[in-house]
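Q: What structure does this chain adopt?
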Amino acid sequence: MEIIFDDSISPGDVVAVGDIHGRFDLFSRFLDYARGSQATVILLGDIIDRGPDDVKMLEKVKELLDEPEKEGLANFFCLMGNHEAMFIDASTGSPSSWDLWAQNGGKYGQYDKMKGHLEWLTELPIYMTLGDTLFIHGRIFPGQDPFEAVKSGRSDSLIWMRSPFLELGPQFEKWSPHLKRIVHGHTCYLDDERIGTVNVSAIGDRIGIDSGAYFTGILTSYNATRRTFQKHTVQ
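A:
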């Protein structure tokens, strides 16, 4: 699949945004790009942790979920990422859940303000489909409808999984007559030195757009309607 970077955006376009991880500055640049476009925006999860501005991210995402028209968007959605799931577990589970969240970039200092967002975070969808494209944070089990995993209580697998999906792909032909591609985050694609050029993974029916925003300074979005990519930076 050819990777094309293009800033065009039109009413009705569907635009997915990769892992933000508390980089409100980069998300603001994305909003500058999308504002007034009447596009549909889908955040692929991991909007919190590691970067500095978890509270700002949660406040803005909640505002956009409630009133996307304030930013001139047609619709706005946010999917569950494994970092949202870790934060929920830390807030409602055992001390070991706190340790796991902290080890993965959770910030105790922001917790008191973050916990006010627990209710809507717990209701985030694991995945969604629009047209012929499935959007998810992590992966699906190759050849299997993700609804089956959710129904059987394996939602965590879908937001944490890498293998065997990365090797085998979605294998749509085994369960879906109309879906053609998956757009996901969760796994960062960089050059060999983990600096410099940030790459997306676009191999046929699998498109990964996590560009390590919290440390690269580059947030990637994908226009699923035009099949083009965009990079958003503070430079």
